[in-house]
Amino acid sequence: CDSVINVALTVGSVYNINRTLSICDGQQAQLPGGGTTSTPGTYSATFISSKGCDSIINTTVNVKMAYRSTTTAVICQGQSYSLPGGQVATTTGLYSYTFTGSNGCDSTLSTDLIVNPVYNINNPVGICQGQRYMLPSGRYVNIAGTYTVTLSSIDGCDSTVVTQLTVNPNYNISRTASFCQGDTFYLPGGQGVNSSGTYTSHLISSKNCDSTIVTTLTSRPQYSYY
Fold it and tell me: What is d(CA 148, CA 136) in angstroms, rounded to the nearest whole number?
């Protein structure tokens, strides 16, 4: 006898899905297959649908760049520097400011701040009477006193040199002395003489200045009585 078989045929859909992900530089994108990536490109993953058919998901990953910049700034001691975030810094260091850019990614501005020193130097100096001393500014002085000179260092910062100038005297001394005939008289310089006359000795004082001692020497006779 004839028999009839009726087959109900169902055609399952094959899915081909395209999607786009945007991430910021340094972030990871989660892919449909379970992996991650931080590299731009198109990634395909094949799945089995509930109907047993292959389905493909194509993921296009776009990486948006995060802006990063480092600036070097130099100030002098005692000055302040305004950082990009509105803060004020006065000490050497690396300062970072993070903000959200127009593309939605974090951007960082770094400031490498260098604080150069300001020098304050005390400079005691002694000269001899009649000499001159050249100050750091190039000016010559010969009068005792305190002289303040402000200069610019190699880093461009003001530095102050305070010179305390002392003028030490040169001594000119005249003296008379006598000795017995036949003896030896020793002058201030250590020279021994045994005759009358005027002798000039040049010495260095305790302040390293020239000193002159003029000695007028008289020989006294020795008498013998019998």
Answer: 9
